[in-house]
């Protein structure tokens, strides 16, 4: 059996592309019943009615007149303002006789509304174009073309591309040409399953819709799509494997795809399969069907076959031309005299000669069949032997074939059972080796024990059972057993099940296995658990109880004494109504406990305690919060203070910001906001650990003191701006002069030292900029890049103050500008869309991105350059333009011109220079 399975798997993997099934009449009958039931049970769902009616039409099955009339009434009442409803109603109107829609204007408005949708998908566009095509409505195909192209760029998933190709098949041939080139992008997303199927993510619905769209678009263009014949066969295999569907939507899309696989001028798959069972009869010819996926015959000049044993490459029958069956153009026969003589599995490679260039699978089809034989067992011997007895002819008894031994054999646990036989082919008497050979021992109570027969060197089989050790297989069950011989194989025509002898076995008793209690499975009901309250203990004497009462009340007495001695601290008591509620609640609680001690029981006390305790808890929480807020104890974390480094950053440019005429006040608002956010941000601690809590215990003074956050002074040399140091820099410190010398020998001194970070050169890649960069980095920078899953996320997520590098800020600015301008990967739309989706959270306007990462000096210089490039307009042109605009508007009157008449003044310059009357040029200055 293992050999046969191995050969079968070899055949399956080698010939997985073969198309060996088609849609037959049984499938049509089965699915038509399902679709007719939908028309009866889902009358209020227009989508289900559409799929059912269209599916029946594709099956060439007409629904009853009553059902058709009922569906037509639902169609006429449909709300055509909804696009999806219009799509289904238009389909029903075209598939049902005398069921035309009347509200064509309303349908046209619904279709045109798709053009105003901000982000329509391919499905909506297809529904709109398909509805317009069915109802004969003219639409603006150029506008739909632009909308469809935008949808394809926004979503390149298999589901959306399938709808896009269906919509493109409804456009003009010239406009649909660009979509035809994208078919290879869709086919490349298909997943191969077991080297037999090709399918898209989304299953049958997406795959069938994609095949229909691809072939419809190819039919419009008159070209063969970018899909190989093997891929088409794998797609068709997947569709036919799902032909037993039971939902109307899946059935419609499946039939729609199979229909276009038959009715197109580009690719038509051919199916070849065996008529009848896989087991062939040597006396009868072998019949083969050659047809399309709907079982219709294909045009062929001849059909030839090669017959090859499975597992070999040498054909035993080559280039055999088949004889067509009269009256059935799709059936061909292999003569009985051409069938193989030896039993085994055989592969039939079918080669079809046809002038039809559309046909797919003319030379790749393979069919599996087998030749089987009858067997005989004529030397079955059985006997009961001693444990060490030699096997002789007298110790065994022959059993005639298909008969039963006349006597019952008796054996106990000291004996052994011996059965031998050989299996021969009935036709020529040759020994064969079946894959299954067993001897079954069946007790009268139905218990069964199987033993596998061992193959001997001579080709025979032996079953030798030592009951001394084999009684465990029988579970020490003594009694009468019937022995049967079971032989089976894939190449045996009729398996053998032969009861050949009866045995009476006396087996030793086996001790019952003790199962641990934890592993026992008890199915009986357990005893009921009855709870018994413990008897109350004897109460102590009155003296003992009074003594313990005094001891319990002693803290209260001590509190009263201390209040009288020290006094009550009413000064820190919050003045609020919650204080009264809290202290009043405490008093009531003590009173309740006292009453409980006197007369209440536990349940009554808990009932009162629930109300009093909740109110006391809430009021006490308010009181404690007020005290904590008064003492500033609401948080144990360090209070937000301005550390020395933050104060230094603020004072660094204080004079520039204090000057109202400074250029920094003309910088863009978004830069100023980013600048101050970065300036006032706390620097991530790198070379020190900030205090974890606001207060800490001083073991010397025995008090709690407030912790101080004092960052270390980090020096960033110019080299830090040329690399990515991850916030590390040069730190001043001290080093012990003789760290390994004992104190008593020589005194130790502390000498100043500079601590430098460990630098290395590393090649980093930016997928936004699409380039590799050789950058000086530290281990911390590499660790941060790894934690942020790449250089781009590290640069974009890290604030400028923590980058501490001009190179890092420049890279951030370049990345943001690239994202803002959508300029990454200009040669690959798919890669660019992936990058834009991945880093969508960082996208900002280009006007804002070009200022990111600039320090104050660079920003001021950039603003100064911008202002210098702006040419000021002369006032005479400005006033002239304003006057013309007022005259056009009619708001400038002649009376108003007197106000603007220039007044003549005598020039003091001319009078003082040469005198009022002697200066000949003075009049030129009197203005």
From TrEMBL:
Residues 1-16 form the signal peptide. Residues 24-261 form the Ribophorin II N-terminal domain. Pfam families: Ribophorin_II (PF05817), Ribophorin_II_2nd (PF23861), Ribophorin_II_3rd (PF23860), Ribophorin_II_C (PF25147). This is Dolichyl-diphosphooligosaccharide--protein glycosyltransferase subunit 2. Belongs to the SWP1 family. Residues 379-505 form the Ribophorin II third domain. It comes from the Eukaryota. Pathway: Protein modification; protein glycosylation. It is a multi-pass membrane protein. It is found in: Endoplasmic reticulum membrane. The chain crosses the membrane at residues 547-568, 580-600. One of its GO terms (biological process) is protein N-linked glycosylation. Residues 533-631 form the Ribophorin II C-terminal domain. Keywords: Endoplasmic reticulum, Membrane, Ribonucleoprotein, Ribosomal protein, Signal, Transmembrane, Transmembrane helix. Subunit of the oligosaccharyl transferase (OST) complex that catalyzes the initial transfer of a defined glycan (Glc(3)Man(9)GlcNAc(2) in eukaryotes) from the lipid carrier dolichol-pyrophosphate to an asparagine residue within an Asn-X-Ser/Thr consensus motif in nascent polypeptide chains, the first step in protein N-glycosylation. N-glycosylation occurs cotranslationally and the complex associates with the Sec61 complex at the channel-forming translocon complex that mediates protein translocation across the endoplasmic reticulum (ER). All subunits are required for a maximal enzyme activity. Residues 279-370 form the Ribophorin II second domain. GO terms for cellular component: oligosaccharyltransferase complex; ribonucleoprotein complex; ribosome. Component of the oligosaccharyltransferase (OST) complex. OST exists in two different complex forms which contain common core subunits RPN1, RPN2, OST48, OST4, DAD1 and TMEM258, either STT3A or STT3B as catalytic subunits, and form-specific accessory subunits. STT3A complex assembly occurs through the formation of 3 subcomplexes. Subcomplex 1 contains RPN1 and TMEM258, subcomplex 2 contains the STT3A-specific subunits STT3A, DC2/OSTC, and KCP2 as well as the core subunit OST4, and subcomplex 3 contains RPN2, DAD1, and OST48.
